[in-house]
Give the backbone structure.
Amino acid sequence: MRKIATILLLAIAASAEPAVPDDLLAVLTLKGKPCGSIKSHERKGESDYLVTCTDGHRYRVSIQGDRVVIEDK
């Protein structure tokens, strides 16, 4: 599952902007993080996003080495 999440986040970084919220939601879901749906997202760097969910959860989603790291904010 870690490789799938990493591949999804790499695809997000290379994709067009409209697909980013759906891809970020897929990564959060694969990692078992509650979200509902993506309310907003902000790109902080290459493969690094700050995500706000409709249920109030906030996460930093990034790639560090070969792993997807999700930090609660």
Residues 2-72 form one domain. The longest strand covers residues 38-45. Residues 2-14 form the longest helix (13 residues). The two ends are 23 Å apart (CA to CA).
